[in-house]
C-alpha cells in the first residue's frame, strides 16, 4: 500500500511540474472580486471586454480602475495547482514589485496577497483579500 501511495505522489508531482501556466488557467480556476481593505481597492480576476484573461485593480468606492494586469504586462508568470490550493506569482516591471496570490484548498473564498518590492526582498505586504462577489467559483476544479 505504501508503494502505491508513493507512486501516486510521484505521478501527481510530475503532472503538476509539467503544467504550463497561463493567466487564462487562473481565470479557469479562480474568478471573482476581492477587497483589499488596506487600500480600499478591489482585485477582480476574470476577463476583460475582449475576452482576454486579466487581474484588475480598482478603487472599491468609485470603481475607477488603477491598473489591469494581462499576460502582456506580467513577467515571470507562474502558477501551481496542488492539494494545498492554487498559487500564482508574477512580476511587474511597471511597479517594480512581485506579486503572489494564494487560494488555499479550504472552502473559504478569500485569497492571500503577498507583494515584494524589487529593492527590498522582505515582503512588505501580506494580507487577506476578502471575497465580495462575482463568480464565486473558487474551487480547485471548475
Question: How is this structure best described in words?
Answer:
The protein is an alpha+beta fold and 142 residues long. Helices cover 16% and strands 49% of the residues. It has two helices and nine strands; from the N terminus they run H-H-E-E-E-E-E-E-E-E-E. Strands 4-3-2-1-9-8-7-6-5 form a nine-stranded antiparallel beta sheet. A hairpin with a 4-residue loop joins strand 6 (85-92) and strand 7 (97-104). The protein is globular and about 35 Å long.
Kindly state the mean pLDDT as a whole number?
79
Largest sheet: 9 strands, antiparallel
Low-confidence stretches: 2-18, 136-142
> In order across it, which strands form the biggest sheet?
4-3-2-1-9-8-7-6-5
Please count the beta strands (DSSP E, at least 2 residues each). 9
Structural class: alpha+beta
Beta strand %: over 45%
Order of helix and strand elements from N to C terminus: HHEEEEEEEEE
Radius of gyration: 16 Å
Amino acid at each position: 500500500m505504501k508503494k502505491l501511495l508513493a507512486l501516486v505522489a510521484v505521478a501527481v508531482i510530475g503532472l503538476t511540474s509539467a503544467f504550463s501556466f497561463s493567466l487564462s488557467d487562473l481565470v479557469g480556476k479562480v474568478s471573482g472580486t476581492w477587497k483589499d481593505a488596506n487600500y480600499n481597492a478591489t482585485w477582480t480576476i476574470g476577463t476583460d471586454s475582449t475576452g482576454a484573461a486579466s487581474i484588475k485593480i480598482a478603487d472599491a468606492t468609485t470603481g475607477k480602475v488603477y491598473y489591469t494586469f494581462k499576460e502582456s504586462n506580467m513577467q515571470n508568470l507562474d502558477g501551481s495547482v496542488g492539494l494545498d490550493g492554487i498559487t500564482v506569482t508574477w512580476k511587474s516591471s511597471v511597479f517594480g514589485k512581485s506579486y503572489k496570490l494564494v487560494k488555499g484548498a479550504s472552502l473559504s473564498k478569500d485569497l492571500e496577497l503577498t507583494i515584494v518590492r524589487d529593492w527590498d526582498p522582505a515582503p512588505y505586504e501580506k494580507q487577506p483579500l476578502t471575497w465580495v462577489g462575482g463568480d464565486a467559483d473558487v474551487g480547485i476544479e471548475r
